[in-house]
Design brief:
Blueprint: H1 4-14, E1 50-61, E2 64-76, E3 79-89, E4 92-101, E5 107-114, E6 119-127, E7 133-140, E8 143-154, E9 157-164, E10 168-176, E11 182-189, E12 192-200, E13 206-213, E14 216-226, E15 229-237, E16 244-250, E17 256-261, E18 267-271, E19 281-286, E20 289-300
Antiparallel strand pairs: 1-2, 1-20, 2-3, 3-4, 4-5, 5-6, 6-7, 7-8, 8-9, 9-10, 10-11, 11-12, 12-13, 13-14, 14-15, 15-16, 16-17, 17-18, 18-19, 19-20
């Protein structure tokens, strides 16, 4: 469950240019506000009275299983209240992270300790009443970077966002269809422009994604559905003449049980579903060999 939020945070320290990364700072895909539980994996159907979720991720090398990641989420009344992550490399603890959340379960602070270099990074956020970021403060060993966000809403939807570090360094604009589905997000920064475009079917499911960089199509993804379930994706990248295909397989209960790359032996399998349709085992295979195992545990009061 190491997610995009933490990866985005880590990049801030590498360079202030990280702000140009095409990353959403709010839940543009949500039709209602405020956002809730922004770090909780979206596939989870939260069982009532859940107080803790633990993901244990193991990697396999030469047939030997080693713990790579341990991530713990603590909840109260269906809302995230704290989190803890441990990340190991070849059995050695590389870093630990502690997360704090606001009253809606949205992450407002992440403190990461890098044990091998004896360094601590702290990222703290201020959010508006809709759950969108308005300030990000990054601190490492006494050095601080503050980034501000100005959000503009129309009809209760985020339509404009400016990223400010002393001056406006990035602007984002969002457009929606009549049903509130995000159809376009445009980023302008450092005299460069990028767009993400989205198309939908009558059930408001995404059928087409296109990324346009400086006026040229960079890549696109086509989504195929059958009986309301995603069955196949085709990813077209300008670097490759052939699309990358992913096929999705479901059981009779309409639970996703496998994602396979084309006709290869590279696949992800989901197993051991609970009564709320949550998988508790995820197995990742590369060239037919098990390379990664995730065990997910739900603790109920």
């Amino acid at each position: 469950m190491i997610n995009s939020i933490r990866r985005f945070y880590m990049q801030v320290f590498l360079s202030i240019i990280c702000i140009f990364i095409f990353t959403a700072s709010c839940g543009q895909y949500l039709k209602t506000y405020p956002m809730k539980n922004d770090m909780l994996p979206k596939e989870i159907h939260l069982p009532p009275q859940t107080v803790k979720i633990i993901d244990s991720i193991f990697v396999f090398e030469n047939g030997i299983r080693q713990l790579e990641t341990l991530q713990v989420f603590n909840l109260k009344n269906g809302i995230l209240v704290s989190g803890h992550t441990e990340y190991y490399v070849k059995g050695i603890l590389n870093f630990t992270a502690a997360d704090r959340f606001d009253h809606n379960g949205n992450n407002i602070e992440s403190k990461t300790t890098f044990h091998l270099k004896n360094s601590v990074q702290v990222f703290s956020k201020k959010l508006d009443d809709k759950g969108c970021i308005i300030q990000l403060t990054a601190t490492e060993d006494g050095k601080e970077i503050i980034i501000y966000y100005k959000n503009i809403y129309r009809q209760d939807r985020l339509t404009e966002q400016s990223v400010i570090t002393g001056r406006v360094i990035e602007k984002r604009a969002f457009q929606y269809d009549a049903h509130g589905n995000l159809t376009e997000e445009k980023v302008t920064a450092f005299h460069r422009e990028a767009k993400n475009l989205y198309g939908y079917n009558k059930d408001h499911q995404v059928t087409l994604y296109q990324h346009i960089q400086n006026g040229e199509l960079n890549n696109k993804v086509i989504y195929h559905y059958h009986e309301g379930l995603l069955r196949k994706t085709e990813t077209h990248d300008w670097l490759s003449p052939n699309p990358s295909i992913e096929n999705y397989t479901y059981n009779e209960a309409r639970q996703l049980i496998m994602v396979r790359q084309g006709a290869s032996n590279n696949k992800i399998e989901y197993k051991d579903f609970d009564e709320f349709s949550n998988w508790q085992i995820m197995e990742t295979y590369g060239y037919g060999e098990l390379t990664r195992l995730t065990k997910r545990q739900f603790f109920i009061r």
